[in-house]
């Protein structure tokens, strides 16, 4: 099973500028705790005031971006979207100010040290949420997907605006209101009379590479039940995850979807699969044992079993399984491949 990082972050509504580094912005971006509703609502009202607008008459809370889109889609009495005034114009002005102040090269360095350090993992999460909302609310309805996609793009991202705010926010900034929402809540939609704002997730599980990843349930879950399931970044159905706990070699072989079969193999464990499926070794030499299992409609599983020559404290020797390319013919060739070498030049003084 993969190692999963579970996010449980305690956040406080203390202003932090880009000069303080990205650590706190990273915490807010990945916070999976209830929103600070009072702080978020004050941030929304401040954002309206800083944009020269009257404060919204109401702030309506949603349990997730899915519910937020539903409310924005219905939008009776909300008035027109004021995103351009609240978000686009002041953010563009701040970017322009910084670029003028720092120069092109200075801005590039500043972005790399602040927002750029958060961008990839945060944007990947935003993209997954948008895709999940589209699939749940629109399915294959092309007209509905177009409508919902536009609503999703009209949202301010709250905690997921952290990359830009890490780079642009400062004392007295016109973005101070948006920064307060980032520290306090999830996505939000500003309209003339009403602002719709979302709760933060209640659970977030990612692997060391920052990808959504959880084998025991949703990798991302919101309080209203909207959730995304994933294994090492790959979207999977919730029912599929439930089935992982009862896997057998026969069930793995019967899976027709090659990508899902690979997930099954990773969860079950390649070494366990080789053992439980009755695989036979195809080659042995001084470096280890080469194993191979054919899979219908997919490349075969080929692995080298190697034994660490350095004993453990209890005197035992640990066994490792190395997956190697399907064309591997000998154990030595497979081990050499893991070092980026050809079998003819792989000749370690001592196998480890």
Question: Ends: how far apart?
Answer: 24 Å
Low-confidence stretches: 7-19
**Number of strand elements:** 13
| Strand order in space, largest sheet | 1-5-6-7
Structural category is alpha+beta
Mean pLDDT: 89
Provide the domain count. 2
Give a short account of the largest sheet.
4 strands, antiparallel
Question: Given the C-alpha coordinates, what overall shape results?
Answer: elongated
Which strand-content bin applies to the residues?
5-15%
User: Helix tally?
Assistant: 13
Order of helices and strands: EHHEHHHHHHEEEEEEEHHHHEEEEH
Q: Tell me the radius of gyration.
A: 26 Å
Helix content: 40-55%
Q: Concise description?
A:
The protein has 352 residues and is an alpha+beta fold.
Write the layout of secondary structure elements.
Elements: E1 5-6, H1 23-29, H2 37-50, E2 58-62, H3 65-74, H4 83-113, H5 116-138, H6 142-153, H7 162-168, H8 176-184, E3 188-190, E4 194-198, E5 203-206, E6 220-221, E7 227-228, E8 230-231, E9 234-235, H9 238-244, H10 249-254, H11 258-268, H12 270-276, E10 281-285, E11 288-293, E12 301-307, E13 319-323, H13 331-338
Parallel strand pairs: 2-4
Antiparallel strand pairs: 1-5, 3-4, 5-6, 6-7, 8-9, 10-11, 11-12, 12-13
Helix pairs in contact: 1-7, 2-8, 3-5, 3-6, 5-6, 5-7
Structure characterization notes:
The chain has 352 residues and is an alpha+beta fold. The chain folds into two domains: 5-207, no CATH class; 250-338, no CATH class. It has 13 helices and 13 strands. The strands form four sheets. The protein has a four-stranded antiparallel beta sheet, with helices on one face. The chain starts with a strand and ends in a 14-residue tail after the last helix.
């Amino acid at each position: 099973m993969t190692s999963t990082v579970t996010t449980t972050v305690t956040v406080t509504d203390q202003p932090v500028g880009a000069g303080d580094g990205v650590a706190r912005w990273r915490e807010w971006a990945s916070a999976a705790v209830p929103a600070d509703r009072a702080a978020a609502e004050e941030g929304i009202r401040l954002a309206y005031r800083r944009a020269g607008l009257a404060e919204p008459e109401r702030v309506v809370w949603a349990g997730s971006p899915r519910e937020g889109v539903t409310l924005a889609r219905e939008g009776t009495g909300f008035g027109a979207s004021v995103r351009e005034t609240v978000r686009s114009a002041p953010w563009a002005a701040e970017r322009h100010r910084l670029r003028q102040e720092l120069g092109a090269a200075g801005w590039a360095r500043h972005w790399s040290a602040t927002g750029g350090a958060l961008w990839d993992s945060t944007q990947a999460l935003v993209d997954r949420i948008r895709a999940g909302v589209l699939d749940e609310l629109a399915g294959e309805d092309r007209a509905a997907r177009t409508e919902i996609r536009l609503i999703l793009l009209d949202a301010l991202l709250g905690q997921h605006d952290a990359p830009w705010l890490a780079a642009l926010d400062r004392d007295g900034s016109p973005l101070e209101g948006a920064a307060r929402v980032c520290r306090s809540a999830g996505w939000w939609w500003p309209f003339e009379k009403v602002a719709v704002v979302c709760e933060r997730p209640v659970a977030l599980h990612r692997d060391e590479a920052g990808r959504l990843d959880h084998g025991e349930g949703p990798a991302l879950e919101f309080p209203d039940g909207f959730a995304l399931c994933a294994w090492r970044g790959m979207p999977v159905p919730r029912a599929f995850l439930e089935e992982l706990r009862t896997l057998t070699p026969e069930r793995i072989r019967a899976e027709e979807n090659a990508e899902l079969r690979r997930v099954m193999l990773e969860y079950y464990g390649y070494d366990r699969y080789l053992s439980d499926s009755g695989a036979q070794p195809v080659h042995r030499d001084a470096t280890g044992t080469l194993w191979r299992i054919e899979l219908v409609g997919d490349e075969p599983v080929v692995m080298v079993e190697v034994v660490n020559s350095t004993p453990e404290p209890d005197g035992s020797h640990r066994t490792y399984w190395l997956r190697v390319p399907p064309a591997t013919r000998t154990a030595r060739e497979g081990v050499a491949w893991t070092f980026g070498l050809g079998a003819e030049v792989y000749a370690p003084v001592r196998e480890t």
